Automatic annotation (TrEMBL):
Keywords from the named record: Lyase, Membrane, Transferase, Transmembrane, Transmembrane helix
Transferase found in the keyword field: yes
Protein name: Putative glutathione-specific gamma-glutamylcyclotransferase 2
InterPro entries from the UniProt entry: ChaC (IPR006840)
Organism of this sequence: Portunus trituberculatus
GO molecular function (one): glutathione specific gamma-glutamylcyclotransferase activity
Signal peptide: none
Any GO BP: glutathione catabolic process
Top-level taxon in the UniProt lineage: Eukaryota
Cited Pfam families: ChaC
Ranges that cross the membrane: 52-71
UniProt key word Lyase: yes
Amino acid sequence: MHGLQEPVWGIAYNIAKEDVDRVVAHLDHREKDGYQKIPVTFHPQDSSIQPWQLIIYLVRYCISASLVPYLKLLRRA
């Protein structure tokens, strides 16, 4: 997936410095099944704001949401 040049639309959140560790720990736990952390350059829609680096959680594979409960059950076995 690295090297793709297609734009991806989304929202970037500015997390207060004192909350970064807690928020990242929560996201790392929530997105642990099937996601990977990827550093990207974020280009704001407002071109007067300089782009900056951030981390996104990118799905490693695409599955139907209806299968997720079954996959989690299979992993417990």
